[in-house]
Amino acid sequence: MVERNKETIQATKTSFEIVHTLQEIGPARLSEIAEELELAESTTHRHLQTLHDIRYVSRDGERYQLGLRFARLGRAAQTCDPAYEMTQRHVEVLAEETGERAQFVVEDHGLGIYLHVETGSQAVRVGFGVGRQIHLHSSSVGKAILAHYPHERVDEILDQWGLPAHAANTITDREALYEELETVRDRGVAFNREEHVDGLNGTAVPVKRDGRAIGALAVAGPSHRLTSEWLDEEVPDMMLAAANELELNATYASDAGSRDHIVE
Amino acid sequence: MVERNKETIQATKTSFEIVHTLQEIGPARLSEIAEELELAESTTHRHLQTLHDIRYVSRDGERYQLGLRFARLGRAAQTCDPAYEMTQRHVEVLAEETGERAQFVVEDHGLGIYLHVETGSQAVRVGFGVGRQIHLHSSSVGKAILAHYPHERVDEILDQWGLPAHAANTITDREALYEELETVRDRGVAFNREEHVDGLNGTAVPVKRDGRAIGALAVAGPSHRLTSEWLDEEVPDMMLAAANELELNATYASDAGSRDHIVE
DNA sequence: GGTATGCGTTCCGCTATGCGGAACTGAAAG
DNA sequence: CTTTCAGTTCCGCATAGCGGAACGCATACC
């Protein structure tokens, strides 16, 4: 390698690569990780030792795994988001009222991240928990958010992540997505008809602040249960009411919000 | 610096130092971080750029903050723990039955980490959320866990973290703690009488597997409400029942547990 | 009980890599 | 128009991180 590598630190990236490997394959031995990442064992060892030192990985005899210290960082990252606290209750209520899975999602680095997930009484228990990432083009929440973003930002995001197909109905054409976003903007509600997972529908409304979306509320469920009337009328009404209340809150509370800073 | 630095990577540590700074002081500007850590601005810049690249920090104009990608890692770390799933329900039930705050805590690197926290109807809402770390010597959960650890491990932990005083009643003498642990082992229940926070009591029972504690269930509340009879008799009974069920589960399910591996 | 195998750790020498200082940019304030 | 300040880029140097090889240390195999 000759050129100066875009002003970025390799060691840090490698350490996080190791963390990702542990996240994906779970508790693993040193040699597995080294092989997976095509690193020398000595190098892998040094990284793991460092991460262990600072308590971000634990080892149980011969297996390494993610340290629970990450739980703290994860929480800190979530509570940093101004929308975190005020949306929690609304998601709970939505889950209860609809009986389906309710969620609140925000955008970060061009992806959607689930901040809250509540499963109603009859909700499907698929693995879309808190912290999960989702492409914005193929989900109701994503479209709700993108519809209220400036054009150039939407382009940036689509450039970065593309429009990969996740299910039969995924919108993979950029122009088609623009049109869809237009519609979403007009209606104030975004739908997902089996665009992300076959058999799964969703409905989302943006939560705005100063005209820009700071996140989106959504309800998701199996397509056979989220039928047209229910989905087109009742659910959106509930969600719009919630979003409305939130928006009042958001602009009202403004920066007076008491960030519950966890000390130490 | 002359000696080879204990076989550990400085760059990774610095990156995490920056992450910690962001965790503590919240959204911050580059210069603040650089000053806080006494790093050159160019160095700080390089680290932040790297962390931004891999989506672990976001920037909002001129302020950097923790990226939400950490939420995913945090969840992954939690669900890695075999006790995570099976204890959730029990904590919920305990919170409901007692009306107080119920918790499940495990040990990692010699500290207690809250895996579940549920606040009952009248529970105090202090900042001890999921992911929070706590010293083992000054909490009911900690004592419950330590009481069922091998002696040498307890020593190691005390060597590493000491016995700092957090409240008026904190046990700061090693011998006194050993005696206390003896008592806990006999009774099967650990108490915390304003040892961690003044005015806050707690009761904990260990959840064991093969004789070793894999975590502890606890109920905590203001000392005026958690009075002697209630605390000494009823609460422990409820918790022991829960722990018992869990232990059967733990040894029964053994390694047959279906780890709900979040794919992608 | 000796040998083989496999995994983890330590050692070592090389150079790429991360470092701080200084120079540059660009915006906001005076 | 100048000054100031925060952030970014440039640059040369020394060190810190790298891979390969050697070393321990088990457990398995014969």
Automatic annotation (TrEMBL), chains A, B:
Molecular-function GO term, any one: DNA binding
GO biological process terms held by the UniProt record: negative regulation of DNA-templated transcription
Cross-referenced PROSITE patterns: HTH_ICLR (PS51077), ICLR_ED (PS51078)
Sorted UniProt keywords: DNA-binding, Transcription, Transcription regulation
All residue ranges annotated as the HTH iclR-type domain in the record: 9-68
DNA-binding keyword on record: yes
Protein name per UniProt: IclR family transcriptional regulator
Residues covered by the IclR-ED domain: 69-252
Gene3D superfamilies: 3.30.450.40, Winged helix-like DNA-binding domain superfamily/Winged helix DNA-binding domain (1.10.10.10)
